[in-house]
Amino acid sequence: MGVWAIASADRIAGGNKPSRIPVSGSETHANREGKMSDTDEITARAETGVSRRGLLKCMSWAGTGVLWSLSGGVPKTLGLIGDAAAATNQLTFVQISDSHIGFHLPANPNPAATLGKAIGKIKGMTAQPAFLVHTGDVSHTSKQEQWDTADQIIGGAGKQVFHIPGEHDVADVDNGKAYLARYGKGTKGRGWYSFDVAGVHFVGLVNVYGFLPGFKPSGLAQLGNDQLEWLEKDLAHRSASTPIVVMAHVPLWTVYEKWGWGTVDAGQAFSYLKRFGSVTVLNGHIHQIFQKVEGNITFHTARSTAFPLTPPGPEPHFSPLKVAAGELGQYLGIRTVDFVRRSGMPALTDAPLAA
Ligand SMILES: [Fe+2]
Ligand SMILES: [Fe+2]
Predict the structure, then answer these.
(1) Which three-class secondary structure state does DSSP give residue 320?
(2) What's the 203 CA to ligand 2 centre distance in angstroms?
(3) Is 8 a member of any domain?
(4) Res. 355 pLDDT band, cuts 50 70 90
(5) CATH of the domain at 153
(6) Residue 333 in contact with residue 94, Cβ under 8 Å?
(7) Residue 56 has pLDDT above 60, yes or no
């Protein structure tokens, strides 16, 4: 059974924050390919079929930093962030996303400052991460000076950073050449790659080519045959017990087709991934947290460090969401991923910058 939900207490707390709570526990709404039509999505909001009260109870903790354990397809809370530090972790890393250095509209005139707060939060972590992953849109318009600024700020964490591109990072005249020259050394094709740390296999996928001018989606994102063939070979000889972490900028499951928030050929990738016992998919691009569980594959979109985007709705396009003064930090954040010893499933902690 597919389950998807916004895991953001910010959406629940009331006030002038967004109050729509998309929840579906039905294959009718989230079909087996993970696709959801516009109509289904809106219907799902109305029905909120899966223990909405229980979900809200869980989500009410998320804004204060709950340790989520995703085991057997059912998310459950293990405790607060402070408890996580006491656990014996096999591997801890942090996901940041959508820094958009160079953005200057009212939704956040200073994304460098909020990125700095995100890095400060990482530096203050009791259990330091082994490395960072950045799931794309480091820059807003693919300018070297924007990447320079981002690298300088992110470098303050003193950690290795694994990048994948967002569509805003491949907006140079050569459609990605500048990004690949800077961040893509040693990668395959147009920037995909894999690596292993502490027995966990990481795969960085690229699905940000094919956008129209002005960063408008031309439809759902695409991985393409070359990348899919590489992925099949990359996974073919690995043990099914190897925990897998997949990073891609645009969600690999269809969050909202109308706005291009999905990947048309992701099903082919899932066919290679489904035999593994633990697959965690980390996405960016939509600047808000959604989760979905499909068997042993869990999907998580991330908050931005720059600005929130509008939640799925009837508007023809998504857009930066201007929130009330002083509340921006509640809509931005970082994600910590802990692989705990004796468990192949990671625990994910989403912490807003404001906390
Ligand atoms: Fe973005
Ligand atoms: Fe993006």
Answers:
(1) strand
(2) 18
(3) no
(4) low
(5) 3.60.21.10
(6) no
(7) no
Give which of 111, 110, 108 is closest to 323, Cα–Cα: 108
Tokens of 173: 């005249």
The residue count for the chain: 355
Distance 53 CA to ligand 1 centre (A): 31
Does 29 fall in a domain? no
Q: In sequence order, what are the beta bridge partners of 91?
A: 339
Q: Specify the pTM.
A: 0.78
Contacts of 70 (CB under 8 A, 6+ apart): 280, 293, 298, 345, 346, 347, 348
Expressed in angstroms and rounded, the spacing between residue 291 Cα and the centre of ligand 2 is: 18
* Bridging pattern class, strands 279-283 and 297-301: parallel
- The predicted-structure confidence for 286-321, as pLDDT tens digits, reads as follows 999 999 999 999 999 999 999 999 999 999 999 999
Ligand 2 center from residue 126 Cα (angstroms):
31
Total of domains in the chain: 1
Ligand with smallest separation from the Cα of 250: 2
- Residue 12 falls within a domain, yes or no? no
Q: State which residues form the domain around 205.
A: 67-352
Quote the ligand 1 centre to 165 CA distance (angstroms): 10
Average pLDDT over the chain, rounded to whole? 80
Has residue 247 got a pLDDT over 60? yes
pLDDT of residue 108: 97
Token representation of residue 11: 């959406």
Q: What ligand has the least distance to the C-alpha of 216?
A: 2
Q: How many angstroms is it from 239 CA to the middle of ligand 2?
A: 33
pLDDT tens digits along 62-88: 322 333 333 333 333 333 333 444 444
70: CA distance to ligand 1 center in Å? Answer: 26
